[in-house]
Amino acid sequence: MLRAMDSAVAGLRAHQSKLDVIGNNIANVNTFGFKAQTFTFKEAMYQSAVNSTGGVLGTAAGTNGAQYGYGTLMGSIITDMTASTPTQVGGLNACLNAQGFFITASVPDKSTSMTGTDTAEITANIKGAGYEYTRVGQFQLDSRGHLTDGKNFVYGFRAKDDATDVETDNLVSLRVPTSAKLSIAADGTSTWDLEFDDDAESLLTSSIQINSLGEVTVTVPVEVTKDGATVTEDRQVSIGKVAVATFHRRQLRRLLGHCPGRGHLLPYERLSGGVQRGPGKGVLRDDYNPEGVPGQFKNHHGQ
Question: What domain range includes position 20?
């Protein structure tokens, strides 16, 4: 009698855990970036009442063993890491239409070297830097001009001082420049001079947007020098590209983003060891894209 009650209680406890998972899924139905979970059961241990016998060939038949079980237990709670349907919201919001996570950190002064050809070393540098990862691209600017997701600072590849491209040697936090100057020569040649001083206030922005390539542009007051005269005009300036990391079996496999010489977020340039370079709190699970399908940013919230 007691054994039967124990089995029944074990089943009730397991089903209560399943209801907890279901309830959590329902509660987060409108949570951007939430990953639904699936609960599975497994049998509890068994105890033998009658042992089996092998029997004797041509003389006696064998007997099967008899066992009774002790109910059921939680088998596993599986997180579904597939992408959901994006929601169009506009503004400074983005989602990934392929595998990957935005790279964030609680502080803005991290800097991870991406130089060299030792992909194992680069991967170890990123893994050891203590980054956090999210699929939610609800971006905004803080009071000092840093790009954030509302909680952490967003990391990527910052624009070069001459605004010709992005700097891919270091993974840094993205922010609005603290100074922007543009010189226009008599022949029409333009020369930019951007400054990103972490100790100075950033320029005031009148607009900010992110495109499908992960490039973030802002409209800021720029000192324009032409024919010996200097005026201040509002102009669009790129502050860099957002970085995206993908994982395989809980190991950092590649960093996507600005592919040198191509300027878009596509995983085309593969280095040895499975690491890719360029720009673009999740659970680090098997999120590898074996087919290498290019990923792009979309102006959506995604999961």
Answer: 2-79
Burial class of residue 147, CB neighbours in 10 A (0-12, 13-18, 19+): buried
Among 30, 52, 79, the domain boundary falls at 79
User: How many CA atoms within 13 Å lie on the side-chain side of 103?
Assistant: 32
Same-domain check for residues 73 and 135: no
Q: What percent of the chain has pLDDT over 90?
A: 36
In this structure, the answer to whether residues 154 and 59 fall within a common structural domain is: no
Find the length of the chain. Answer: 303
- Contacts of residue 170, defined as CB under 8 A and 6 or more positions apart, other chains included, come to 111, 112, 113, 114, 115, 157, 158
Which of 289, 284, 285, 286 lies closest to 266 in space, CA to CA?
Answer: 289
pLDDT in tens, 34-59: 889 999 999 888 888 888 888 777 77
Tokens of 101: 């996570």
For 208-241, write each residue's pLDDT tens digit: 999 888 899 999 999 999 888 999 999 999 999 9
